[in-house]
Amino acid sequence: MAETSEGEAPKRIPFMQRLLDNPFLLLFLGVTVPTVLYLLWGVMELSQIPVAR
Amino acid sequence: MAAVATGASGLAALAARFRTCPITGLKIEAAAETLIKANAVAAVVFLAIGGALGLLVALTRWQAVHLLGPDTFYLVLTAHGINALLLWVIFFEVAVLYFASAVVLNCRLATPQLAWVAFLLMVLGSLTVNWAVLQGDSSVMFTSYVPMQASPLFYLGLILFAVGALIAVLIFFGTLVIAREEKTFEGSVPLVTFGAIAAAVIAVFTIASGAIILVPTFLWSLGYVRHIDSIMYKLVWWGMGHSSQQINVAAHVAVWYLIAAVVLGAKPISEKVGRIAFLFYLVFLPIAAAHHMLVEPGLSAEWKVFNTSYAMYLAVLGSMIHGMAVPGAIEAAQRARGYTNGVFEWLRKAPWDNPAFSGMFLSLVLFGFLGGISGVVLGAEQLNIMMHNTLYVPGHFHGTVVAGTTLAFMAVTYLVLPVIFRREVMFPKLARWQPWLFGIGVAGTSLFMLGAGTLGVSRRHWDITFADAPLGFEYPPTAFLMLGLNGIFAILAAVGGALYIVITGASVLFGARVGPEGPKTPITAAPAAAGVVGRYGSAGTLHLPGTYVLVAVFFVSFVLYYFVNWRYLSELWPMG
Amino acid sequence: MAVHPPESRVWWNEPIPKGELVWVTAAFLWGVVMFVMMIWWHLEGRQNLSTEVYRIDPEVFRARVEAFVAQHKVGEEGTTGIPIVRVPPGGDAYMLGRLWEWWPVLELEKGSTYRLHLSSLDWQHGFSLQPVNMNIQIHPGIEHVITITPTEAGVFSVVCNEFCGVGHHQMIGRIRVVEPGRKG
Description:
The structure holds three protein chains of three kinds. By secondary structure, chain A is mainly α.
């Protein structure tokens, strides 16, 4: 939906500005990155704790 | 409330539901306004409860006073955490989100009826969790670590509250879509709204983590699930527990920009850099939930180092950017007014008798020096060995959540009263003192808890004299001095907090109405004389020596304190 | 103003003021230094948390601690009845946390290195060694093996610093460190 108003702008909007102007891309990034780096990576390590002999 | 909820929904009636704010020139929709009011009022009620309970905690830990018995102390401490750390800030943040979307973008709020549902769910959840704690069988602390079990109502209350908060966050995103489609603003969203987006994104991750862990724990408390693994619980729980406090950081930084803009007309010194800083927040702040997992078994050093450092301190970089951009914007605006003498005339002649400004600036300084620096030190993997679960931890987060977030929210209240409630701030002389009393009080509690924590004093501990324990231990006398000072400053903070409650409560109920000509006590500083400076945002026009001095002092303190702590660590017993 | 949209439509291409650029660079480099500091301490520092961790049934762990106590017990701590266990220098030491005690009391030699096995039998506890100020979290069902070298003789206390119910503030244990070759 961000694209419609940008189509009217005479100048080309740089990629990074387009990213920052799109709250749903930001939402995707902000949920995915911590889910992978913190939650999934953490759960993987905790589920691999060896059982004591 | 109900009258507004059933407001007209036809497009024809749209225009009639808006008014133009005489102070900010923004168009404000009636439904959005009422919802902001409701959430802000609920927030202040829970702050009053949480704050009063906090005073009882501090007076108990002041060993010479030792106010409460052990059962009551642990109950009160649990309730203090939930009310002050969760209910107060999240209710206020919902108000901030509605303000930053609907009001700042001159837009109507998406689905106000649903927003009332969200509000009622949050209120219901808040009452449920408080009721559960008051029963005395849920004194499990804010963290409620399994296998310690609370009553099912405790978890149910938190789940209801979280569902309500999630709906509110989705309404924020919906409002952004409406504003874009109805073209209520041109180009990119304002920086304040962008900061609110960061807060909302972090909120989604926070609530998702909460759902993953609280729903099974609720079922476990009912007996439907046999076992919850304590370390898994802790990992996922902190995805909620720590990230919920990161919502605060993004929200209160947005509030700093908001206050600087409304009071002084300050413009961001660089739109690009400010937004990148918020981008670092929304992507990397939540992974620092690892701060709570640094001395836990089972996680690798790689996981700890990477997550605790927000991926090489990118979120800290974000904070340091804001820490310069906010005073920089203020300095630029003040210099544009003609306060150009010396390095600090702009700061001396800042509107210090406006509590919105003084509260905001105190929040900025205290958050940086107390909360910020201590947080990075606490979050360094190995340094955490000296600090985990000591009073250093609450010392740190009273620097961030109380001196930072709560003080910033108090400050913005002095704008919300005339702008949204359309009431004059009552007792303006007292209001002038309020941020100072609260700020200095909280700075003291933060500082002395950091001190006691450095001496190894345990947090969440009823009696550090171990009077009725089979074995004894004596903490150094300085530790007791620190806890006494903490109690004294907590009283000061409580006086400041009570003043805030009285001033806002009285103003909302009895304050004189603000007419179309604006409030009698002006909240905006005199406008800049035209033509003093060129355009902001272009290199060359900016000359900010005062800000450079401030950030240099900060940087040097940060570096020195950081390495002092590594020096302490090197004296510990070798371990590996 | 920060409550208005950016003045120019394409703000991304605006130059960053020089002062801000210097600050951003300095702050970024400081972040790199702090990041490297943690890694460097893993290589060169002597205080790092062990990652030797096992899942263990609390009953199995209790049996191991009891066997360890039976083998090395040298006395009792005052009138408390808590056994004092003299750990062979360089050997394995066990300590368990439960509501609301640390058990047993350990006697270590200054300068010797021990493998300290920690776990909880019920809830989470916080192993807070004072006044050294060393704090480690203890979980039920997880055995954490930490290599530790006392560098000073004396009586040290283990305060529980994770809230564990109404008796939490009474939960305190003891580690005695004696000079090498001396009996405590």
